[in-house]
Design goal:
By secondary structure, the chain is α/β, with parallel strands linked by helices. It has 7 helices and 14 strands.
């Protein structure tokens, strides 16, 4: 038995917004039951592209061609019912409250649906209240923190490796957000990489991160790496010999990546879980012995 055909109509969408979120979630959930077409004179490519797995999208001149459906769902109260769409039933979804620019709603639908009880009461809508569908994202966004001086010629090819890692994540379509605290800036930073001003103590940021990133060629110690470990946050780092002093271990509390950055970036989705203790008292005693 063929699915009933449903058309979602809106004259113009925004890049982001409540209606745009509704369209995506409706198509995601309801495409199992209906043959859905989204008709819109103007829709951003980014919005149209993500609807493709769930619905047909007719934009521009295609949105003005004759089309038939069982049910027409009107999404914006200011849009008149298009004359090129033939339907058996029309539903209006009301997603706004009364305001200086909105005193009333069209009363031309077979069913008027309110997005909330507040909307139903505001416009005295007789139809049902249907709250928004909401898809929970299955994607994991990596939150990365680094505290890397820029420029830092004494550290080697740090900046090159940072750009390489960002490209690897983007190419692998792994969502990430990377904050770098520095007295300088990475020029023309990669997408989702943000230069932040120097901050003397970043441990409160590290505590919220998935990883601390340290990709130097040379380090005499690695304070930020140790700061991450004492906060039980794993690190992405190069095989710096000095890190052995405080037991940075690949697969245990770190992903140690080669200097040439030739590694499987997907392993970063496997975030190490560990318990780490650092003996400050031992170092205090060492200083007491020699002072």
């Amino acid at each position: 038995m063929p699915k009933r055909r449903v058309i979602l109509y809106i004259k113009k969408t925004n890049i982001i917004g409540g209606i745009e979120t509704f369209i995506y979630n409706f198509c995601y959930f309801m495409s199992l039951y209906f043959d859905i077409t989204v008709v819109c004179e103007v829709m951003a490519d980014i919005q149209a592209e993500r609807l493709k797995p769930f619905a047909e999208v007719k934009r521009g001149e295609a949105s003005k061609e004759p089309i038939e459906c069982n049910t027409l769902l009107m999404l914006r109260i200011g849009d008149p019912i298009p004359t090129n769409i033939s339907y058996e039933k029309v539903i209006r979804r009301i997603h706004t409250m009364k305001s200086p620019g909105v005193k009333d709603i069209p009363r031309d639908a077979d069913v008027t649906v309110a997005i909330s009880e507040a909307v139903k009461e505001d416009f005295e809508i007789k139809g049902p209240v249907i709250n928004n569908l909401m898809r929970k994202s299955s994607e994991t966004t990596l939150f990365l923190i680094s505290a890397t001086r820029i420029p830092a010629p004494d550290k080697g090819d740090n900046e090159i490796r940072m750009r390489k890692l960002a490209k690897m994540l983007l190419d692998a379509k792994i969502p990430y957000l990377w904050l770098n605290f520095s007295d300088g800036q990475l020029k023309d930073p990669p997408k989702n990489f943000y230069n932040l001003p120097l901050t003397l103590d970043i441990q409160n940021y590290i505590q919220k991160a998935d990883y601390l990133v340290q990709l130097s060629t040379r380090e005499s110690f690695g304070n930020s790496v140790l700061e991450a470990l004492i906060n039980q946050v794993p690190v992405i780092c190069t095989p710096i010999p000095a890190f052995k002093d405080f037991k940075v271990e690949d697969g245990v509390n770190a992903h140690i990546v080669p200097f040439d950055m030739d590694f499987d970036v997907y392993k970063l989705l496997d975030k190490p879980r560990f318990f780490y203790e650092y003996d400050n008292e031992k170092r205090v005693c060492q200083w007491l012995d020699i002072i």
